[in-house]
Amino acid sequence: MRIDVVTIFPEYLAPLRAALLGKAIERGLIGVHVHDLREWTHDVHRAVDDSPYGGGPGMVMKPQVWGEALDEVCGPERIAAEGRPPRLVVPTPAGRPFTQRLAREYAEEEWLVFACGRYEGIDERVVTDAARRMPVDEVSIGDYVLVGGEAAVLVIVEAVVRLLPGVLGNPASAAEDSFSDGLLEGPCYTRPEQWRGLAVPEVLRSGNHAAIARWRRDRALERTFHRRPDLLAALPDEALDRHDRAV
Ligand code: 6GU
């Protein structure tokens, strides 16, 4: 998978080369290319923003700079070279929610381009124009406001790359984590059996695999009921069996 990021703070994306993501780069599973948006400015001040039409606070990122940047990073020539257009992802608190389902969709893509906005946003015509050549998603990572899209890109890329074959040591961790069955994961334990007066639940040491699976399912249901009732409500009818409904 190829990942391009256009930002006015390229150093903010340094964590993409650390830990799990760095390993994925070293092993050739992903290629990461971070671009400084200011390279496409032409004025001495290297201005990327201007005041908003219609007035109001804050600044809006200029369309010409973004247009030239995206032309070079993922314009017609680059699309011809790659054989097909990328999926362009624009992080914004006004976007559609980024979910595990969208992470799985992105994990199927061969090329993702992220356009990080700062200030109040990017001139709307940048997205409209890009959408003439490639699919564009404006996505939000949650109901709160960040200063810019960079931290959101770190979140999205980490969620996507861990799903790529060969990135996680144990593929079952991706298959069994929270959300894959629509529920939150329940609690987990390791040695010692007793710690500060707290015991590991007996059933987990019983060796009874059916009882362990049932216990884990019950704790996941309980936790989801208390912390994320919206997730339980969204489950399809057949996702819960008779035992589940008794919890
Ligand atoms: Cl993706 N960007 C910004 N700037 N703020 C956010 C966000 C994204 N998601 C939630 N808040």
From TrEMBL:
Instruction: State where the protein is found.
Output: Cytoplasm
Reactions mediated catalytically: guanosine(37) in tRNA + S-adenosyl-L-methionine = N(1)-methylguanosine(37) in tRNA + S-adenosyl-L-homocysteine + H(+)
Just give the chief location class. Answer: cytoplasm
Q: Which UniProt keywords apply?
A: Cytoplasm, Methyltransferase, S-adenosyl-L-methionine, Transferase, tRNA processing
Q: What is its EC number?
A: 2.1.1.228
Q: Which GO terms describe its biological process?
A: tRNA N1-guanine methylation
Q: Domain tRNA methyltransferase TRMD/TRM10-type: where? A: 1-232
Query: What GO cellular component is one of the record's annotations?
Result: cytosol
SUPFAM superfamilies linked to this entry: alpha/beta knot
Q: Has the keyword Ribosomal protein been applied to this entry?
A: no
MF-aspect GO terms:
tRNA (guanine(37)-N1)-methyltransferase activity
Keyword Ion transport set for record = no
| InterPro entries per the UniProt record, alphabetical | Alpha/beta_knot_MTases, tRNA_m1G_MeTrfase_C_sf, tRNA_m1G_MeTrfase_TrmD, tRNA_m1G_MTases_N, tRNA_MeTrfase_TRMD/TRM10
Q: Tell me, in a sentence or two, what this protein's role is.
A: Specifically methylates guanosine-37 in various tRNAs.
The entry sums up its family as follows: Belongs to the RNA methyltransferase TrmD family.
What is said about its interaction partners and assembly? Homodimer.
Q: Which PANTHER family match?
A: TRNA (GUANINE-N(1)-)-METHYLTRANSFERASE
Under what name is this protein listed?
Answer: tRNA (guanine-N(1)-)-methyltransferase
Question: Could you tell me which species this protein originates from?
Answer: Gandjariella thermophila
**In the record, what lineage is assigned to the organism producing the protein?**
Bacteria, Bacillati, Actinomycetota, Actinomycetes, Pseudonocardiales
